[in-house]
Amino acid sequence: MRVTFNSQYRDAAAGIEIASERMAEFQRQVSTGLRVEKPSDDPSAASALVTERTQLARVEQYSQAANSVSSRLTVVDTVLSDIIQKLSAAQSATLGAMGSLKSDADREAAAQTVLGIRAALLEDMNTSFHGTYVFAGGAATTKPYAAGGGGAIDPYAGSTTEVAIDIGENRDVTVGFDGSAITLGSDATDLFAEIDALVIAIRAGANDDMTTGSAALRRAMDRATTAQMRVGVGMQAVASEQSRLEAVKIATTTRVSSLEDANMAEAISGMSQADAAYRAALGAVGTASRVSLMDYLG
């Protein structure tokens, strides 16, 4: 069977087109560094990339939440340490004012110290983080404690319902705390009212009442310590989840890279081979086009 000039030309032209497409594909991979740039490049890999990128976005969202929670809990932990320290100082001042040998000046100095601590505790309980009050529970934009008439502190205005934030799949950490669990707990009178009564007892030299007030300070200190332990557990949970999320992020990013990125050595080699095939196809067309009268007569 004789192969005609037209069929030879068509075969050579097809070879040029195939070689040109392969060369363009390898050039794209080399220039972009990507093996898969659009779904048609590799539909199966493109589908897997959608899944992996969705996972990566979810991990990034949880990572940001965990970082925010970590910063918030660090603030709460610091404040609780300050509250415990101030309650201890108030206890010391109270004990220092007890006894029949204390003068009015001594007791007034102790009373002023306790009043100063009261003001500092009020600031601590009204601590805010990025515009929300950490001890207001679910009422995060409501100031937990405010001074009322005559300088007395109004009752707790926050929520007893606490707020938690998801930092991972089925894993959350409390970030909005019930302030009354620290200042009141199971007591009948909250901490600020107890301190007001204690100041009166110190000035009056009422040792029994000072003992009662000191015990109230101890209970408040125990509640603050319990809250700080909860915060510590939360911080450990966040640190653990941050490590897990980082590991998942690295693994997912590696999978994305294996699906999407071009093998540069293979791409450069393929581009060279495609270029050689392209030149060979061009040469074949040039040879086929150089026909003579004898070719037709044959």
Percent of sequence in beta strands: 5-15%
Radius of gyration: 38 Å
CATH class identity of the largest domain: Mainly Alpha
Shape: rod-shaped
CATH fold call of the largest domain: f41 fragment of flagellin, N-terminal domain
How would you name the CATH homologous superfamily of the largest domain?
Answer: f41 fragment of flagellin, N-terminal domain
* Low-confidence sequence ranges: none
List the defining traits of the structure above:
single chain, 298 residues, mainly alpha, f41 fragment of flagellin, N-terminal domain, 2 domains, two-stranded antiparallel ribbon, 8 helices
Question: What does this protein structure show overall?
Answer:
The protein is mainly α and 298 residues long. The protein has 2 domains: 13-33 and 264-298, no CATH class; 52-254, f41 fragment of flagellin, N-terminal domain (Up-down Bundle), CATH 1.20.1330. The protein has 8 helices and 4 strands; from the N terminus they run αααββββααααα. It has helices at residues 5-32, 43-97, 104-125, 180-183, 191-204, 207-260, 264-289, 293-297; strands spanning 128-129, 132-133, 163-168, 171-176. The strands form 2 sheets. Strands 1-2 form a two-stranded antiparallel ribbon. The protein has a two-stranded antiparallel ribbon with strand order 3-4. A hairpin with a 2-residue loop joins β1 and β2. α2 packs antiparallel against α3 and α5 (191-204) packs antiparallel against α6 (207-260). The longest helix has 55 residues, at 43-97. It is rod-shaped and about 125 Å long. The two termini are 13 Å apart. The model has no long low-confidence stretch (mean pLDDT 85).
